């Protein structure tokens, strides 16, 4: 890069900055003016409108004047919002207007166009020349996809080809040019080096300036119904997903709104971690939720749901007994497509027999019995779909209630209630009666006029004595009060005994096979039945039962669908079962799905493999509608850490570290627990002294986290924070956190609390151990009291340093 280039770039930057400033100065009064105008119109809305309803013409005029005023107000508000958006976008550009440039000569045109790329577009005052192109414009895609030489990009009108003569990167801070790089192949390793070398942030950053080609393919993929991304730990899956949301919102801005996109994240803390990326790019956040939240919403408060964290805590901490084996088998079976099919068949069986209803009861007495409902239900034409028959039954029940209600008014219990109405209740009753009375009096007056006008005498006496009917009205009110919750519960389908319908499945093996057509069952089925029923009897559901329970409920009661949603993103996609995917597909019938995950981090028992011919996920929408992208380059950790962590996994040779070097992972071995806490405290101090601001002490389980937190506090470790599944936000500092909650996030340094064979001994825990180690960006320290876990014993000794304090 010569001095001349630098000077020219500096001059251009100055010019653009001036123009941005000028635009801000121009927009500021416009924004303020429009805001004031809209405010004024709103305030004086009724003053400007002439309201007169005396004649038909007056009435029409009034309506017209209101709608004119409304149109004026919404026009001002729209202009205000547009100007404000422009103002925000120019302000966002000001400190760093662009980060890249390509010079492109389109075939046949012979003109060299300089394309500067930033977080949004900026057009010169002539309204024609783009001083900055939004990174999401078609032409900007060349910046990510090509190196200098022949290049092309796709537009709605077809492919444009040409020659890219230059590709340049900028670092501009506070309006000052700090670095310039001309790049040839990938997007500036130098810039990426700098970005990745920095400390961890409590919130994720956008990566627009350094998006890599393979990530760009994910971001701009626009033709698959299902996009599956299998990517190594730290390969930028979450980052790419968020940039993809921004891209979709830009590309389809006329018809796609942020709330039509849903992201399922692994835990609430992760939600807060990623929540700043889109606003940083000038876009609104999509809807963010966890699958658990969704289940709780669907199942309601009557049943207490176990969450995936309690489930994994059980799997990791319990001893290997028969009951434990049964639970593991249950988790696997209840996550399978076979179980899904079994439930479908069960719904078919319920169409013929076995439905479970709850009687509708009033004051300890059956008003409509379950048997009556059953008779009514199975009396419907069996060719009508199950859920539709349930709707018919619901209508029938509401009708029955309407017929029963007047009959109840004369019942003995109403007399009793009348006697026992206290003062407040009377007051409330009279209040209501007064309203009734005024309605009554109004209708009385109306009837009188009608009578006079039509010259017809009313059929009734017209001399309704209100006082005489007071008691009757009170009775009516009392009964109505008791019937209202019954109606509500019918509308909410509570006459279906969903718990019993689910429990019934677990009575015995032969019955289950008969009801579901299932032929193969887990070996420990009787124990599985016992465990499931036991839990249900306490009004609780295991996590593995929650989705199937909701699925069955919907098969019977009818689907709840979200037809508004157009895109569903599932992060940490390996942690969802095929059962859950089928469920999501039904729930969002009009949405495209993007699933991002890493089978190497599949720590839950119900995990789904995402890639390869084995992946059942490809079947969800079919091969022709599915696209699979693999990311093998890992950006988060230093080369030394990636080389080490990838050797912990079996068959992970393909993972390629980004070339950023640091210290090798350090293995520290001590003799006993007491020494361990002491050593960790020392290591923490050393890491802080090195400048690591965010450090995680990662344990295997939540129970271990609690113990470690106390032990380290006893060592007087300063500013420690214990992270539990309830922790809502992610902050810098030193955290003690169980591995499964550290999923998706990253730290400057990671300390594995006890990497001994006492703690990590089951082969099934390998991926959990790997996940924990891959959270480290710059430093990884593993400590153990006693013998190392077998996962470490297989690692090549050249990949780490050792410090042994063991005798
Ligand atoms: N193109 C890029 N430019 C700059 N930084 C990047 C890029 N891609 C990824 N990173 C950084 O690498 C780190 C890991 O990214 P991210 O969390 O998106 O990966 P992931 O694949 O979701 O990881 P995991 O599966 O381990 O949770 C983040 O700090 C992210 O900013």
UniProtKB/TrEMBL annotation:
SUPFAM superfamilies: P-loop containing nucleoside triphosphate hydrolases (SSF52540)
Keyword Transcription: no
All residue ranges annotated as the UvrD-like helicase ATP-binding domain in the record: 210-638
Transmembrane segments: none
Chain coiled-coil ranges: 3-37
GO process annotations (BP): recombinational repair
Residues the record lists as binding ATP: 231-238
Keyword Coiled coil: yes
Protein name: DNA helicase-2/ATP-dependent DNA helicase PcrA
């Amino acid at each position: 890069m010569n001095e001349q280039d630098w000077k020219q770039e500096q001059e251009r930057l100055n010019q653009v900055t001036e123009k941005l400033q000028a635009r801000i100065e121009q927009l500021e009064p416009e924004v303020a003016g429009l805001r004031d105008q809209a405010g004024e119109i709103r305030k004086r809305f009724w003053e400007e409108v002439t309201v007169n309803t005396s004649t038909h013409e007056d009435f029409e005029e009034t309506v017209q004047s209101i709608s004119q005023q409304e149109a004026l107000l919404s026009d001002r508000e729209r202009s205000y919002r547009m100007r404000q958006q422009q103002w925000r976008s120019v302000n966002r550009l000001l400190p760093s207007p662009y980060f890249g440039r390509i010079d492109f000569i389109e075939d046949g045109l012979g003109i060299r166009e300089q394309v500067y790329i930033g977080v949004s577009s900026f057009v010169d005052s002539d309204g024609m020349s783009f001083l900055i192109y939004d990174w999401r414009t078609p032409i900007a895609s060349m910046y990510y996809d090509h190196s200098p030489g022949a290049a092309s990009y796709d537009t709605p009108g077809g492919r444009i080809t040409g020659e890219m003569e230059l590709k340049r990167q900028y670092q501009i801070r506070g309006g000052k040019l700090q670095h310039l790089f001309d790049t040839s192949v990938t997007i500036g390793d130098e810039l990426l080096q700098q970005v990745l070398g920095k400390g961890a942030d409590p919130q994720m950053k956008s990566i627009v300036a350094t998006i890599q080609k393979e990530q760009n393919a994910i971001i701009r993929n626009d033709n698959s119904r299902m996009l599956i991304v299998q990517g190594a730990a730290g390969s930028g899956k979450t980052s790419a997903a968020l940039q993809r949301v921004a891209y979709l919102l830009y590309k389809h801005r006329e018809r796609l709104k942020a709330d039509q996109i849903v992201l399922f994240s692994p835990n609430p803390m992760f939600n807060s971690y990623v929540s700043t990326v889109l606003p940083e790019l000038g876009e609104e956040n999509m809807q963010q939720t966890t699958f658990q939240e969704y289940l709780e919403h669907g199942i309601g408060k009557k049943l207490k749901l176990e969450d995936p964290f309690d489930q994994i805590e059980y799997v990791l901490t319990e001893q290997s007994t028969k009951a434990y084996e049964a639970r593991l088998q249950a988790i696997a079976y209840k996550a399978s497509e076979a179980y899904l099919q079994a439930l479908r068949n069960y719904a078919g069986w319920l169409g013929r027999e076995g439905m479970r209803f709850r009687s509708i009861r009033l004051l300890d007495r059956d008003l409509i019995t379950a048997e009556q409902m059953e008779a009514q239900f199975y009396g419907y034409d069996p060719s009508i779909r199950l859920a539709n028959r349930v709707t018919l039954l619901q209508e029938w029940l509401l009708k029955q209630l309407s017929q029963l209600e007047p009959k109840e008014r004369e019942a003995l219990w109403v007399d009793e209630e009348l006697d026992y109405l206290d003062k407040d209740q009377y007051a409330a009753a009279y209040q209501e009666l007064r309203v009734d009375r005024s309605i009554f009096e109004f209708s009385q007056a109306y009837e009188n006029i009608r009578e006079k006008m039509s010259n017809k005498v009313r059929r009734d006496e017209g001399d309704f004595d209100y006082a005489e009917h007071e008691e009757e009205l009170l009775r009516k009110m009392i009964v109505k009060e008791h019937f209202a919750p019954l109606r509500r519960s019918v509308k909410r389908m509570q006459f279906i005994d969903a718990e019993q319908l689910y429990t019934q499945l677990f009575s015995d093996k032969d019955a289950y096979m008969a009801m579901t057509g299932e032929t193969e069952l887990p070996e420990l089925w009787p124990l599985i039945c016992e465990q499931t029923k036991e839990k249900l009897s306490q009004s609780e559901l295991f996590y593995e039962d929650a989705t199937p329970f909701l699925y069955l409920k919907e098969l019977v009661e009818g689907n709840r669908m979200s037809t508004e949603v157009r895109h569903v993103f599932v992060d940490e996609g390996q942690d969802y079962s095929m059962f859950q995917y089928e469920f999501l597909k039904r729930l969002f019938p009009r949405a495209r799905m993007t699933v991002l995950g890493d089978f190497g981090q599949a720590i839950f028992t119900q995990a789904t493999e995402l890639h390869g011919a084995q992946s059942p996920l490809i079947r969800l929408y079919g091969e022709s509608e599915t696209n699979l992208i693999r990311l093998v380059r890992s950006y988060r950790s230093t080369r030394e850490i990636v080389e080490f962590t990838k050797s912990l996994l079996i068959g992970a040779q393909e993972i390629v570290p980004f070339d950023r070097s640091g210290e090798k992972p350090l293995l520290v071995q001590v003799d006993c627990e007491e020494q361990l806490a002491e050593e960790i405290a020392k290591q923490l101090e050393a890491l802080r002294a090195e400048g690591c601001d965010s450090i995680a002490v990662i344990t295997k389980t939540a129970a271990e986290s609690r113990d470690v937190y106390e032990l380290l506090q006893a060592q007087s470790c300063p500013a420690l924070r214990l992270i539990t599944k309830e922790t809502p936000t992610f902050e810098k500092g030193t955290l003690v956190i169980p591995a499964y909650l550290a999923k998706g996030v990253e730290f400057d340094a990671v300390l594995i609390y006890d990497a001994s064979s006492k703690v990590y001994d089951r082969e099934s825990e390998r991926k959990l151990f790997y996940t924990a180690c891959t959270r480290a960006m710059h430093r990884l320290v593993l400590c153990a009291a006693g013998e190392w876990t077998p996962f470490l014993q297989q690692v090549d000794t050249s990949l780490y340093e050792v410090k042994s304090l063991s005798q």
